Each structure stands twice: as structure tokens, then as C-alpha cells.
Amino acid sequence: AQSVTQLGSHVSVSEGALVLLRCNYSSSVPPYLFWYVQYPNQGLQLLLKYTTGATLVKGINGFEAEFKKSETSFHLTKPSAHMSDAAEYFCAVRGGDQGGKLIFGQGTELSVKP
Amino acid sequence: GAVVSQHPSWVICKSGTSVKIECRSLDFQATTMFWYRQFPKQSLMLMATSNEGSKATYEQGVEKDKFLINHASLTLSTLTVTSAHPEDSSFYICSAGPPAGAGGDTQYFGPGTRLTVL
Which A residues 2-31 touch B at CB under 8 Å? Predict the structure, then answer.
């Protein structure tokens, strides 16, 4: 069975500050891990993903995440927050089988203060 | 590339009526599509996995007779909410992928459909 836990349902940072959104997973098979962003009343947009290979993955809009197997974590970071980063962020895990379903975390709402 | 559309983007209906929501992969073929439901300020809950040419697989607790799913082609899946009631009001999101025959590992999400049942 797989599960995802996002620590902190709401994170608030100042513009220009570091963004850190936490995600821990549980998986009985090598996981595929994803971060998605959702703006109000919209679908989900893929920020980045980890499947195999390099554990530090870079995504769009300056975001990156590091897969740490020993910590079962896949935290999302961005060095400098922009106002436009304010949104809901979801971490998701999928088993290694192609076409498998995604299991989502609870989501973290990111607020950016001017 | 990898664009998924949904129609309609929002719908208001009366209690007891049925509503159909379409999910289309515009530039790729998808043997598998997924339907999610999202309540305000909550995460996505997977409702069912839609497989082209076969019956959908529903998650535990999801009524298959109420949420009818049809995946008749490699680019179209439909979700019909039958005899809708106010508690069915929600944001419904579909995803498609990975693209058929191209390998890959990513699902692409539609923009969602806001259903309000009066």
C-alpha cells in the first residue's frame, strides 16, 4: 500500500524567502513521486517528478525536489518565493507499474506575503 | 503537448437529473484515464480508473451505478452522475496517461468541472 503525508496544510512565506513544502511517502515498491500545483478552480499542473536516476530533480518555475530514500521524503523547495507561487501544492506517489493510479497527499496551501 | 480538456467547465442542475462530463486527451491517446473528486480545501479523491474498451475500476465506497464511466475511445472518457443530489456537488477532475505506446509515467490533468446540484 502507498500513502503520502504532507506536513503543514498551510505555509506562509514572504516574497523572496525560501519555500519548503514537506512530503513523506510510504511505498512497498520503488516509488514514482510527483509534485503538482493547483490554482483556484483549475486542474493540476505537473511541477516535477522523480522516477529513477538523479535524486535531485528540477521542475518548472524554479522549483526542485530531492528524493531521499532513507528518509522516505520528497520535499519541494524554491530559493525565492514569488507572489505568483501562491497556490495549492500536492505531492503524489505511484507504484512502479506503468499506468498506475496516483495517491495524493492532503495538499499544502502556500501563501506569499509581499 | 499532452493536453487534457474537460467539458463542461461548470454545470448547474436540478436534483434528480443526470449530468455528463467529458474528458478528452487532445494530442495523445490514453488507454487509461482517471476520475477524481475534490471537495473545497481538500485533496483529490480517486473515484475510478477508466480503461479503454473495458469496464471501469471503481475505488472502494464509490457507487458505480451512480457514477457511470464510459471510455469508448482512446481520447474520450465520460463520467455521468445519475440522479444527482446536492451532496454530489463537487469539483470533478480527470487525468489521462501515460500516453499509449509512448512509455512515460505522467498523468496529465484536465481543468476540472464544477458541478452544483440545486
Answer: none
Query: At a CB cut-off of 8 Å and minimum separation 6, what does A29 contact?
Result: A95, A96, A97
Q: B107 vs A42: CB contact, 8 Å cut-off?
A: no
For A42-85, the pLDDT digits (tens) are: 889 999 999 888 999 999 999 999 999 999 999 999 999 999 99
Chain A contact present for B31, CB below 8 A:
yes
Cβ <8 Å between B6 and A43 = yes
Amino acid identity at A94:
R
Q: What pLDDT, in 10s, does the model give residues A24-36?
A: 999 878 889 999 9
DSSP letter string over B1-14?
A: ---EEEE-SEEEE-
Residue in chain A nearest B112 by alpha carbon: A43
Q: Tell which of A29, A35, A104 to mutate to test the B interface (max B CBs under 10 Å).
A: A104
